[in-house]
Design goal:
The protein has about 210 residues and is of the alpha+beta class. It folds into two domains: about 130 residues, Glutaredoxin; about 45 residues, Antioxidant, Horf6, Chain A, domain2 (Antioxidant, Horf6, Chain A, domain 2). The chain has seven helices and eleven strands. The radius of gyration is 19 Å and the shape is elongated. Bound molecules: benzoic acid. The site of benzoic acid (BEZ) has 9 residues, from helix 2. The site of benzoic acid has 9 residues, from helix 2.
Length: about 210
């Protein structure tokens, strides 16, 4: 069965471009992004891995550890890494799982047989420090993902975790946020002493907490 938001992210050990990794140990107390690639030496994946590597400082700022996956062996990953650096201008700076027996792909339901029996789809799992799945995204092989969106969701998840707020449509860092319905007005007075804008009793807008 596929993983759902709130489920524990299954642990595994796997060969990667940075040696054998125990997934939960690799994550430690950090947030995590696990994302799959259909195959080595494919064009869209090459651009995605270059972009994820370029954004490493942004992931680091948010205490997020990134890990990729492709169902090819490590020596193939190492060869492909040279092309990624050459064509995208950034060297890989996070591990890529060599999932040649598709163990992790099966565990995370990354192979969708009606799309392909052999390639994974483009899955993204954002995992919290509690090892619970916070977000799942699934893209077809032909569509490259938007890593700015992945960072945006992480910003939203981290705000929610800290401040009992939710983020409205098209929210980006610095925009106003919404007080979650579970917080009563009495509690909101404590949390947001500068007040909020009550558009409806269920729609309470407040400046983004620092
Ligand atoms: C790609 O990464 O470019 C790709 C992989 C599989 C199918 C289509 C595109």
């Amino acid at each position: 069965m596929s993983l759902r938001i709130g489920d524990e992210a299954p642990n595994f050990t796997a060969d990667t471009t940075e040696g054998e990794i125990n997934f939960h140990e690799y994550l430690g107390d950090s947030w995590g992004v696990l994302f799959s690639h259909p195959k080595d030496f494919t064009p869209v994946c090459t651009t995605e891995l270059g972009e994820a590597a370029r954004l490493k400082p942004e992931f680091d700022k948010r205490n997020v550890k990134v890990i990729g996956l492709s169902v090819d062996p490590t020596d193939s990953h190492h060869e492909w890494a040279k092309d990624i650096e050459e064509t995208q201008g950034t060297a890989l700076n996070f591990p890529v799982i060599a999932d040649k027996d598709k163990k992790v792909a099966d565990l995370y339901d990354m192979i969708h047989p009606n799309a392909s029996d052999t390639f994974t789809v483009r899955s993204v799992f954002v995992i919290g420090p509690d090892k619970k799945v916070k977000l799942t995204l699934t893209y077809p092989a032909s569509t490259g993902r938007n890593f700015d969106e992945v960072l945006r969701v992480i910003d939203s998840l981290q705000l929610t975790a800290k401040h009992s707020v939710a983020t409205p449509v098209n929210w980006k860092v610095g925009d106003d946020v919404i007080i979650v319905p579970a917080v009563t007005n009495e509690q909101a007075k404590e949390k947001f002493p500068d007040g909020w804008n009550e558009i409806k009793p269920y729609l309470r807008v407040v400046a983004q907490p620092k």
